[in-house]
Write a structure and sequence with these properties.
3% strand; two-stranded antiparallel ribbon; 4 strands; mainly alpha; 386 residues
Length: 386
């Protein structure tokens, strides 16, 4: 209708109003996400408890990679029950807006006066909606990570060093399944398939990393403990491999979730490869922990490609080897006596570090949960008086 009256400055002013309104709308959509909480230091799930090896020579494994450092700030999101639906609606809306903005740009450029055509560019607004979409995926991943945090804590609470009987899957595995399956099923039904695949990729990578870091923070794991954890790893890997093809059972009357697909029961090959590779780290770690000490060096060198003395020390810590045993093992690995003694000294205190890390992490997570609840109550109070 506007083009009937003008195709010049007035139409261009309308175009500028569109740009401004679209940016504001993207901001409104972004505000629908639960607020992120800053967690520093030991409260970060992926903290590296072996940071002291940074001071050791390169022959011992060198300086800790900055990506494993706990010095940064982690932003976590606690999604209240049911609010994942809102996050998914925002993602879906942003995808629609991004597509519409591109079509709107083409329409305006086609109708506006020739001299103004080169000034028509709405790529920034389109990118803004893409940014909100990407943030939404990160919010979903972080929110699901927080849902399974209690189950990860259960791993650390259990005394794996005294376990002498291997049973069925551990209780924490069932807790993870009960948290993950309904959440993923909801997401799968509300966002486009390409974004759902991206969500699965990011969550699988985050989960396997958190699980591995949880394992290396344990005090000691017995041979039976390693067998039980290997069984748990198998069940968790099976769960994650089926996430891209998850679907709610149509015949279920109790709301349960089946891991099946309406079209295909085979997850994408690249996803399968990634998940298998990530879990292989945990499987190898546990197999080495269960290896007899007299065979450890040979098996470690044969199976852990590029494994360093720091990696070997992590295994020895989980085996519960003392300083003298660790020193002898590190010398057999190829370190000189002085370096081996320094490395063993780091390892001998790792159990104490682990205990402090776990306490700090639990406190940090509790604070995050309380802050999230307080903010939710404030928001509800404000809405009641609008």
């Amino acid at each position: 209708r506007c083009t009937v009256l003008t195709q010049g400055k007035t139409f261009f002013a309308l175009y500028m109003a569109f740009k401004d309104t679209l940016r504001k709308y993207a901001s409104v959509l972004e505000d629908k996400f639960p607020q992120a909480l800053n967690i520093t230091g030991a409260a970060i799930g992926g903290i590296n408890i072996n940071v002291n090896v940074a001071s050791l020579p390169s022959s011992f494994g060198g300086r800790v990679d900055s990506r494993d450092s706990s010095s940064g700030v982690a932003r976590v999101v606690n999604i209240p029950p049911g609010e994942e639906v809102t996050v998914c609606h925002v993602i879906d809306t942003c995808e629609y807006c991004a597509d519409t903005v591109e079509a709107l740009e083409d329409l305006i450029r086609d109708k506006i006066h020739e001299k103004l055509k080169e000034k028509i560019d709405m790529s920034e607004e389109q990118e803004t909606f893409h940014d909100v979409t990407a943030k939404g995926i990160r919010v979903l991943v972080s929110g699901l990570e927080q849902r399974i945090e209690p189950a990860l804590k259960e791993i650390s609470k259990k005394d794996w060093g005294s376990l002498d009987v291997v049973g069925e899957e551990s209780a924490y595995v069932r807790s993870m399944h009960d948290a993950i399956a309904p959440f993923v099923e909801t997401v799968q039904g509300l966002i486009p398939s390409s974004y759902f695949r991206n969500f699965c990729d990011k969550f699988a990578a985050a989960f396997t990393s958190s699980y591995y870091n949880t394992l290396i923070r344990q005090k000691r794991i017995s041979e039976s403990g390693t067998q039980q954890l290997l069984l748990d790893v198998y069940n968790l890997k099976t769960l994650l491999l089926k996430l891209p093809v998850i679907e709610k059972s149509k015949s279920s009357t109790d709301g349960s979730v089946d891991l099946k697909s309406p079209g295909s029961t085979i997850p994408p090959a690249m996803y399968t490869k990634m998940v298998t590779k990530q879990f292989a780290k945990s499987e190898l770690l546990l197999k080495l922990v269960g290896t007899p000490p007299e065979l450890l060096i040979d098996v470690f060198k044969a199976q852990w490609s590029g494994g360093t003395a720091a990696n070997l020390q992590t295994v020895m810590n989980l085996k519960g080897m003392n300083r003298k045993e660790q020193t002898a093992m590190l010398e057999s690995f190829g370190l000189d006596s002085e370096t081996a003694q320094r490395g063993a000294a780091v390892g001998s205190t790792s159990s104490t570090v682990t205990e402090h890390v776990q306490i700090l992490q639990e406190k940090g997570n509790d604070v995050a949960a309380n802050l999230s609840q307080m903010r939710q109550k404030v928001d509800d109070f404000r809405k009641a008086f609008r």
